[in-house]
Specification:
This protein is 28% helix and 24% strand. The protein is of the alpha+beta class. The chain folds into two domains: 217 residues, no CATH class; 163 residues, no CATH class.
Length: 519
């Protein structure tokens, strides 16, 4: 391309990023759920006619964004663009086709220009409730975990699919919130479609295919060029951590750098087998976080799209905990999935040691509460998260109480107290929980609460690293493990717990590992 073409491409690329980011902002403004509105637990992206992700918003989580990228082609195979009509809206929450558990619903909105579908705007968000067991690891198979929505049309020619809407409402505990969040996804997709058509009007484009080909081609080649600069070979990493119930999970990653092809293969052979509780991970979600680890080290400035994801291949044995088979339970898949970057980073430390950080606390601790208010009104809280400390970096300490690698924000306690009958008794950093080192690991935090209820209530807390703290790197000391206490007594369960009205809950999240020997 000429220099002028390059300039035009950069301008149009910036417009696409602004468009999908506006889609994300609209979704956050309209959403009912605090985890979407306040924490940013979402992903939005633009896809071409082939279902290839072209651009993503500047906000969102790796697990959602890269799983959404995988979902695009499943939608296109089921609903070819030439069979769609203006006003159609597509939906699924199939764990194996999208983001790994039922709570994350993906909505795809086709974009039409001159009566022809030219692409799609997609979004994935975590919904307040999906029926079934709720957020937690206690289900025995996927069918106990909630409502399974296959690839379907949520709207057809602008008309709501009344039966599907009714099925969704009758199978969830908070139908107004779920319906409201689905409406927010639909509205945000329409915002994206309007902005894309406006861009086409300004630039005289009939569709985005030529623009998509240029962006994806350049992104792929730039990624391959970055891989070709690495030292060829196969490098190994391993991470061991404990999960709810006390089981120890091992994740092994072999990272092979093929400089001739510009490929990088991540193989999870040797990792733990599927678990009997709902912490299993589908390959989409494993690939999402494995890719995140590579991209964070390789060249963070490259666009994240189908082209840049193509050179990184992720494989895992079927039936392993990172490539589970139907009907394995998956609702708390983040408990293992958010540890996926750890062994990958340990392998990459042998290739690019200056860009890798020590182990962090890993998965966020997720909480969901069900019960009745003092006047007898039933409620189900949205899932909310608390993080531990981030691992130290070579030249900087780890960040305190930071959701890494997911990137979601903590919902403010004031918002949670306004949304349900909860009172927080403590919320502060946990000094000294980060591992010592030349650079110290980030500290975890204390979170204490009780409920303003007259009746017993149900609690799901998905805590990990309550036995094995994060490892340090290059002689750094490990971070302290976490603790989950009820009335001062340690608890380590994967099941939903029945709680008394005056029970006191305290969580102490893990600290991050240190980097380098302490001085």
């Amino acid at each position: 391309m000429s220099q002028l073409d390059g300039i035009a491409l950069e301008i149009q690329w910036s417009n696409l990023i602004a468009t999908v980011t506006e889609q994300a902002r609209a979704l956050q403004r309209i959403a009912f759920s605090p985890i979407v509105r306040e924490a940013g637990d979402l992903a939005t992206a633009l896809f071409d006619r082939q279902g290839r992700m072209v651009a993503q918003a500047v906000t969102g989580t790796p697990g959602h964004i890269n799983s959404l990228a995988a979902a695009g082609q499943h939608f296109v195979r089921e609903f070819p663009p030439d069979t769609l009509h203006p006003g159609d809206v597509l939906i699924t929450n199939d764990p194996w086709l999208s983001a790994g558990h039922f709570f994350d619903i993906t909505v795809m909105t086709p974009v039409f220009r001159g009566g022809r579908c030219i692409g799609f705007f997609g979004s994935t968000i975590h919904h307040t409730d999906i029926g079934g067991y709720g957020v937690g690891a206690g289900a025995r198979d996927v069918h106990e975990e909630g409502l399974w929505i296959p690839l379907a049309k949520l709207y057809e020619k602008g008309v709501p699919n009344a039966l599907l809407h009714s099925i969704i409402r009758r199978n969830v505990r908070t139908p107004e919130h779920v319906s409201g969040d689905l409406a927010a996804q639909v509205a945000a997709g329409r915002v994206g479609a309007e902005r894309l058509n406006a861009l086409c009007d300004r630039t005289g484009m009939d569709d985005i295919q030529a623009l998509a080909e240029a962006i994806l081609g350049r992104s792929e080649e730039a990624t391959r060029d970055s891989i070709r600069k690495l030292k060829p070979g196969t490098y190994h990493g391993e991470s061991i951590f404990d999960v709810p119930g006390g089981a120890k999970i091992t994740l092994k990653a072999a990272v092979t750098v093929d400089v001739a092809a510009g490929d990088l293969v991540i193989d999870f052979t040797g990792s733990s087998p599927e678990a009997p509780i709902g912490i299993n991970v589908v390959l989409n979600y494993t690939a999402a976080y494995a890719n995140f680890a590579v991209r964070a080290c390789l060249d963070p400035d490259l666009p994240n799209n189908f082209g840049s994801l193509l050179p990184v291949k992720v494989v895992a044995p079927e039936g392993s905990i990172v490539n589970c088979r139907y009907p394995a339970p998956v609702n708390a898949r983040h408990v293992v999935g958010m540890y996926v970057p750890m062994p990958v980073l340990k392998a990459l430390h042998q290739v690019m040691p200056d860009r890798v950080l020590a182990e962090g606390s890993g998965a966020v601790w997720t909480i969901q509460i069900q019960g009745r208010t003092e006047d007898g009104t039933p409620f189900t809280s949205s899932m909310f998260n608390y993080s531990g400390g981030m691992g130290a970096r070579r030249d900087k300490p780890g960040l305190d109480a930071t959701c890494y690698p997911t990137g979601v924000a903590a919902v403010p306690v004031e918002v949670l107290e306004a949304a349900m009958p909860i009172v927080f008794t403590r919320k502060e950093l946990r000094p000294g929980s980060g591992g010592a080192g030349r650079q110290r690991g980030g500290d975890g935090q204390f979170i204490g609460f009780r409920m303003r209820t007259r009746e017993p209530w149900l609690l799901n807390v998905v805590a990990s690293r309550t036995d094995l703290g994060p490892e340090g790197l290059e002689g750094g000391e490990g971070g302290k493990p976490g603790r989950f206490l009820v009335n001062g007594q340690p608890v380590n369960k994967s099941q939903k717990m029945a709680m008394a009205a005056d029970d006191d809950v305290m969580m102490e999240t893990p600290g991050g590992g240190g980097y380098g020997p302490p001085t």
